[in-house]
Design brief:
By secondary structure, this protein is an alpha/beta fold. The protein has helices at about 1-20, 25, 35-45, 60-65, 70-85, 95-100, 105-120, 160-165, 175-185, 215-230, 255-265, 275-285, 305-315, 365-375; strands spanning about 50, 90-95, 125-130, 190-195, 240, 265-270, 290-295, 320. It has an eight-stranded parallel sheet with strand order 5-4-3-2-1-8-7-6. α13 packs parallel to α14 (about 365-375). The chain is globular and about 50 Å long.
Amino acid sequence: MKQAIDRFRRLSAGLLLLGSAATAADAQRPGVWSRERAAAWQRETGWLVGSNYAPASAINQLEMWQAESWDPERIDRELGWAESLGMNTMRVFLHDLAYKQDPQGFLNRVDQFLAIADRHKIRPMLVFFDAVWDPFPHAGRQRPPTPGLHNSGWVQSPGLPILRDTARHRELEPYVKAVIGRFRDDRRVVAWDLFNEPDNINPSSYSPVEPKNKAELSLALLRKSFAWARSMNPTQPLTAAPWKGDWVDRSKTLPITRFMLDNSDVISFHSYDPLDKLQGQVAALKRYGRPIIITEYMARPRGSTFETILPYLKEQGVHAYNWGFVSGKSQTIFPWDSWQQRYTGEPPVWFHDIFRTDGTPYREEEVRLIRSLTGQR
């Protein structure tokens, strides 16, 4: 264990050396953390390992956070399972409509969630916006899951009517500022993720109704979101994760990806690729000289598995959030292609998730591996 800690500290110190040649570039981006401050955050947090989390009882972010479906007992039970693995963080999606319909109640529920997580030694990363799946969210009762369909009820935040009308983006400012204003000095929050896959046009599902200029619209909101968040001066880092395109060759990097990389205090990214491709992605991101967080990985049939990926991430000091924790209403045990072909029973290999709804591990060997890497007995 001491050797692992020493290796992690050496990796953290190495971030300063890798970034020393680009200090002048930081000065051109006011508000972005210095590399020294980012490295200090990494030393304070240690290695973060967890999952993207929604309780089994919630089909989406709204069903998680709305008062009528808020389920703290289940959350407490499920985060206990995470603690048993030695996980110390979770990535959790908020929603602007949950705030809009009940601002004070929503903030209080976030506070209650953080209290539950803290009891289990878990410091969540909170996500404000999301461009994936259904672009027409609505407050109130959520639809039931479509059997066998991956994320059949997950919703975007904001919805398309606000995203495509840039004049309405300002309606989201109170939400971002209220949440960060409430928790900006709260050590229970480990980081803020501003926008999940902002230029995702959902080609396998909702692309016929997505705007052709979604990347431009999302970049406009992303710029505003970083400005709103920075104005609150949080003590936790801000980030947004590249997820597609080429960020190895910067000349080929998409404008929205370049903005995310240049304006994040700590670098995050998504990859469901096998180890060989992931290694190239991590090597490319190290040139920024900042802590690196993979905020989505682990899709078993694609070759992104705990066995192949997680030991490498720990070795490299890359913080790790796999997609999916407990099988439930999100139905992410089913693959993405369930939008094209029908699944009538449990798939032969789960796409995501670690636990069944009752807390039984899907694969005991995965649970043993995670515990061995986190040092959990």
